[in-house]
Write a structure and sequence with these properties.
The complex is a heterotrimer of chains A (285), B (373) and C (369). With 285 residues, chain A is mainly alpha-helical. Helix content of chain A is 73%, strand content 4%. Chain A is built from 12 helices and 4 strands; from the N terminus they run H-H-H-E-E-H-H-H-H-H-H-H-H-E-E-H. The relative contact order of chain A is 0.14. Chain B has 373 residues and is of the alpha+beta class. In chain B, 25% of the residues lie in helices and 36% in strands. Chain B has helices at 47-55, 97-107, 112-125, 141-153, 171-188, 199-205, 223-228, 233-238, 277-284, and strands at residues 3-14, 21-32, 36-40, 62-67, 70-71, 82-85, 159-163, 192-196, 208-213, 216-221, 245-254, 257-261, 267-271, 289-293, 298-314, 319-325, 328-334, 345-350, 356-359, 365-368, 371-372. In chain B, a hairpin with a 2-residue loop joins strand 20 (365-368) and strand 21. The relative contact order of chain B is 0.11. Chain C contains 9 helices and 21 strands. Chain C has helices at 41-49, 91-100, 106-120, 135-148, 165-182, 193-199, 217-222, 227-232, 361-368, and strands spanning 3-12, 15-25, 30-34, 56-61, 64-65, 76-79, 153-157, 185-190, 202-207, 210-215, 239-243, 246-248, 251-256, 259-263, 275-279, 284-287, 295-305, 308-314, 320-326, 336-341, 346-350. Chain C has a 6-stranded mixed sheet with strand order 6-7-8-3-9-10, with helices on both faces. Chain C has a 5-stranded antiparallel sheet with strand order 16-20-17-18-19, with no helix packed on it. Chain C has a 4-stranded antiparallel sheet with strand order 2-1-4-5, covered by helices on one side. In chain C, a hairpin with a 2-residue loop joins strand 1 (3-12) and strand 2 (15-25). Classes of the chains: A mainly alpha (285), B alpha+beta (373), C alpha+beta (369). Chains in contact: A-B, A-C, B-C. Chains B and C meet through helix 5, helix 6, strand 15 and strand 17 of B and helix 5, helix 6, helix 7, strand 17 and strand 18 of C.
Chain lengths: 285, 373, 369
């Protein structure tokens, strides 16, 4: 019995290592690339040994992209700011609209509630390009094209259904009796919503917000069509790395590292809330 | 009588041996052929782990399990010839209740006529003849549980394991079915192990009860013995409903009288020679003991100790009286409707032969009645 | 009258749960709603609490019609079967919930919570979150929360269901005093007939779509309105045998295992009609063979039941009878036993409707004479 469990442990360890290698290798390689010049990246055969350079990062931060043939201006930092602002604002708006709606869908069974909730979810099914064409024309007419407000509005297509459906599930998991108990104790429904429902669904709201943030951050098509250079997020801005003199792999790698940093930090921070969310089962005891 | 099942120094660890959770600790017990045994304890006491080791769903970390004369601890469940009724019923959902019950007999290629006769017999006993053609999910929890019980009891196995077999039964049926099941098992000479947290059920069905707590077998004895001579405070208070009354007491001897001082200045006075000299010595040598007395052994009597009635609850065929007594509560059971009002002062008499004395630190029994353990 | 229900109807889609229920409860009374699961007990409690609304009918609390009144304005306290504690608040904040709703000062809240915790013996766990509490402590915390607002009406939804047997027994003995101290009107829901008899000033037996019988524990145990109710009270369950009363020399008799048994002469009107006789297991006594009127039985098994011993026996025509006696008293030998039945504990029911047949007063007077 002991020997089998030891063998098991070794096998399990090896399997885990393999999986980690498989998934982490691209990220590891990109980190390496971000410290190399295009020449060292493109040499054949590739090698893990090189002289690390910070020029990619320096270029991105100062906005001066140096290539072999030319030097061009790139607005990476302002793109990064745009991404940050657009994603945060979209999630904030999504939460303000989505959390109360999710609560309503979870608790109040009114006529057509299921249909409305499903319709909202179905926005996720439609290919964005289908929506974009008419939207572009309308936005231009009403002056929303190329504004933050317009983009945040369109981003709700991504953010709102996600928040609505995740948070609704969490609200449904809170036994109604817990809220009734607070009402019967003499509290108004609004107080009950704030003191009972919101805190108990907190981990779910955090998880939904994080996911929504990542989806908004990674959006490409909406911003490509609806935003001009000064409102572009990093996803669109990255196109600038494909220059006339070739693809700037080093800068792209550094750009990737810089642009995943905020979501990565956020995920790390939110991790404990997500774990707490899993233990919400304690509510049902 | 022959031994049908023998557990020999069985241990169960979850996690590494000697380091993981020690769920079952060095349990040894014999079950005779034709005996009904109850494994009794609260959740997490190790009874289910023990059952699962006997059935073969769980490996014993140490020790041996002998069933019908062969060592089975390394055999898979299917080769142990054990029938089991699961707590979660585990009926096959795709076949009818009747086919569920007949399943093992058909698999053993018994003649159809015999299968039909045996299904009829066991389902009549459990009152589920009317649901044989229905599917498990379309019948109530209580009916599913009876179907699961029928599926186990119909088999010819070396051992029948019944895991909480009556938990979901309609209360009106429970007492009747207990009687019938006991009759059924006894008539066929089956050996059965019942796992339950309900001491009423254990007492009603079992020839012997194995009381478990914290992975340790606390006592393994007949219901009568456990009632008369619980091995420790845990067994004493766990088995028996209403639970045993327990009070801390100090013994002292005054002249020819033995006094048991309870809290709040109350003393129980007995003639010293009512107790054997050993009991007297054991009582007097301890600074404190725990005194237990069963509720039905407490009698109202003019020359008893004072108590004040807190509740008098008539349940149709008996009355339960709770009275504040010696800083705690004493419970009395009377078989007729008791005519005492809440707030009334009564006197209660605890006879020497009804006293159980336990060590106040270890909880192990010192004396029962007037004799040492 | 503290609580009045008038013709309350409640259906969920097409499933009628309460079909015109009326009820009135006095101030300070403890009324137990008893019945099997699905009988509508919890629905009734929720209607009173205001978390669901009746389809029609009136609910009047303290003389006020509750139509359109929110749960928080009804002045009630409620304890739930699954406790429904607030998982993110400690026991103190849970108990204090009815107090924080009233803008009480912090110190007054602390005092009140402390008082309740002392009464319920949970002072030592006041700072624990619900998941750190044992089931018994959870149950007491839930009870404390229901009591804290000193409500005029207290709704207890099977509060002892989820605690272990020992604790349930202790609480059953302790609750009446706690409730009387509160002087509240209590509606107590349970599925356990012992709890119902122990705690109720009156018991409303719910079955079907409403209340089938309402009365004191004595009324219901000694004069159950129908077979169903007779079966719901008592453990072991009442023995039910089909009989046809016959005229005898000096009144009415039934025949069990070929032995005639005289019953109340007030049952004269039932002579020749198909009836069901109900005999409580504790109304049957084992006697020596040869005793006058003794009925022979085949003994099957004996099972102990707490402080009683239950004998399962079969009559001459193959019908099962359960007999219970105090534990430790002598029982029958194996094989054949003989019983006598206390005729004053015999109930007769109409076989067709299941309703109890009340012996006529004339018969009673004659019987007494």
């Amino acid at each position: 019995m002991n020997t089998t469990s030891n063998l098991e442990r070794v096998l399990r360890g090896m399997a885990i290592t393999l999986v980690i290698l498989f998934f982490m290798f691209p990220i590891f390689w990109i980190i390496l690339m971000s410290f190399q010049t295009n020449e060292t990246i493109l040499r054949v055969p590739p090698s893990m040994f090189f002289e690390p350079t910070l020029q990619n990062y320096r270029g991105l931060i100062t906005g001066q992209l140096e290539t072999v043939t030319s030097s061009l201006e790139i607005k990476f930092m302002s793109n990064l700011f745009n991404s940050l602002f657009l994603s945060s604002a979209s999630v904030a708006v999504g939460l303000i609209l989505g959390v109360p709606a999710a609560y309503a869908f979870a608790r109040l069974k009114f006529r057509g509630s299921e249909d409305i909730a499903f319709t909202l979810l179905s926005f996720r099914f439609a290919p964005p390009l289908l929506v974009l064409l008419p939207l572009t024309i309308y936005f231009q007419q009403i002056g929303l094209a190329n504004t933050y407000g317009g983009l945040i509005w369109v981003y709700q297509l991504i953010v709102l259904p996600l928040i609505l459906w995740i948070v609704r599930g969490y609200f449904e998991d809170i036994p109604a009796d817990i809220e009734y108990a607070y009402r019967i104790a003499g509290h108004r429904w609004w107080t009950t919503f704030r003191r009972i429902a919101l805190p108990l669904a907190g981990p779910g709201i955090a998880a939904a917000a994080l996911l929504a943030f990542i989806f908004a951050w990674n959006n490409f098509v909406f911003a490509l069509v609806l935003a001009s250079a000064d409102k572009q997020p990093v996803t669109v801005g990255a196109l600038a790395f494909i220059t006339a003199s070739g693809v700037q792999y080093g800068q792209i790698a550094a750009g990737i590292i810089l642009s995943i940093a905020p979501t990565f930090a956020l995920a790390l921070y939110a991790q404990r809330y997500l774990v707490e969310g899993l233990s919400l089962g304690a509510v049902k005891g | 009588m022959t031994v049908q099942l023998r557990l020999n120094a069985v241990d169960k660890f979850y996690g590494p041996i000697d380091k993981g959770v020690h769920a079952v600790q060095n349990v040894s017990m014999d079950v005779m052929k034709g005996e009904i045994i109850a494994l009794l304890g609260s959740s997490g006491c190790g009874k289910t782990s023990t059952l699962r080791m006997i059935a073969g769903f769980e490996e014993a970390s140490r020790g041996t399990i002998e069933l019908a004369g062969r060592e089975v601890q390394n055999l898979p469940p299917v080769r142990r010839n054990v029938a089991m009724a699961f707590e979660g019923y585990s009926l096959y959902p795709t076949v009818t209740v009747g086919e569920n019950i007949a399943f093992a007999l058909k698999a053993a290629k018994l003649p159809d006529a015999e299968v039909t006769a045996r299904v009829k017999e066991v389902t009549e006993m459990l009152e589920i003849t009317d649901i044989l053609d229905r599917f498990p999910t379309s019948v109530s929890g209580g009916q599913q549980q009876r179907a699961s019980l029928a599926r186990a009891l119909i088999r010819d196995a070396d051992l029948h394991l019944l895991d909480e077999p009556m938990g979901q039964l309609e209360p009106q049926l429970r007492t009747l079915l207990r009687g019938r099941i006991k009759h059924f098992v006894k008539e066929r000479g089956l050996t059965a192990i019942l796992v339950t947290h309900d001491q009423t059920e254990a007492n009603a069905l079992a020839d012997r009860i194995a009381v478990m707590e914290g992975g340790v077998l606390q006592q393994y004895a007949t219901p009568e013995e456990i009632k008369k001579a619980p091995a420790n405070l845990f067994t004493g208070t766990f088995v028996g409903e209403p639970p045993m009354n327990v009070f801390p007491a100090k013994a002292r001897e005054v002249g020819s009288e033995l006094l048991l001082d309870l809290e709040q200045g109350l003393s129980l006075t007995y003639a010293a020679d009512a107790f054997s000299p050993e009991v007297r010595a054991a009582l007097l040598s301890r600074s404190e003991v725990m005194l237990g007395v069963r509720p039905y052994a407490v009698h109202r009597s003019d020359n008893g100790a004072g108590a004040q009635v807190m509740a008098n609850q008539w349940l149709g065929d008996q009355s339960h009286i709770a009275a504040s007594f010696a800083g705690g509560t004493i419970v009395l059971v009377e078989h007729d409707r008791a005519n005492v009002a809440v707030g009334e002062a009564i006197n209660v008499r605890l006879e020497p032969e009804d006293l159980h004395v336990f060590d106040h630190v270890t909880g192990s029994a010192i004396s029962h009645g007037v004799e040492m353990v | 009258m503290s609580l009045v229900l008038k013709d309350v109807v409640k259906a969920f889609k097409t499933d009628v749960v309460l079909d015109g229920v009326s009820l009135s409860v006095d101030a300070g009374e403890t009324l137990v709603l008893f019945g099997p699961s699905g009988a509508g007990k919890t629905v009734m409690l929720r209607l009173i609490a205001g978390v669901i609304e009746p389809d029609s009918g009136q609910i009047i609390l303290q003389g006020r019609d509750m139509d359109g009144v929110e749960p928080e304005d009804r002045g009630i306290g409620m304890a739930f079967q699954n406790f429904a504690l607030f998982p993110h608040m400690d026991a103190t904040d849970n108990i204090a919930a009815p107090l924080t709703a009233r803008n009480m000062s912090k110190s007054a809240i602390t005092d009140t919570v402390g008082k309740i915790a002392r009464m319920l013996k949970i002072e030592h766990v006041l700072h624990h979150k619900p998941k750190e509490l044992s089931n018994g402590q959870k149950q007491r915390t839930a009870l404390g929360r229901a009591l804290a607002g000193e409500p005029e009406i207290l709704l207890l939804d099977d509060p002892l269901r989820n605690v272990d047997a020992k604790l349930r027994f202790e609480m059953r003995l302790e609750l009446p005093r706690l409730l009387k101290d509160q002087q509240a009107t209590v509606i107590y829901v349970t599925q356990d007939y012992k709890e119902a008899m122990a705690l109720g000033d009156r018991i409303a037996v719910m079955n079907g779509h409403g209340i089938q019988q309402i009365g004191t524990p004595s009324d219901i145990y000694l004069a159950p309105a129908n077979i169903e109710i007779a079966r719901l009270f008592g453990d072991p369950v009442i023995n039910l045998l089909d009989v046809t009363p016959q005229a005898s020399q000096d009144g009415v008799q039934i025949t069990l295992s070929g032995v005639p048994l005289a019953i109340d002469a007030g049952y004269r009107s039932e002579i020749g009609r198909a009836c069901t006789v109900g005999i409580r297991p504790e109304a049957i006594r084992f006697v020596e063979a040869g005793t006058e009127g003794a009925i022979p039985l085949q003994i099957e098994t004996e099972t102990p039941l707490n402080e009683k011993t239950v004998t399962l026996a079969v009559t001459g025509n193959g019908r099962e009878i359960m007999v219970s006696r105090p534990a430790g008293t002598p029982g029958p030998d194996h094989g054949t036993g003989h019983i006598t039945i206390d005729a004053s504990h015999i109930h007769l029911f109409d076989q067709a409707t299941g309703d109890r047949i009340v012996p006529t007063a004339v018969g009673k007077a004659q019987g007494a004479a």
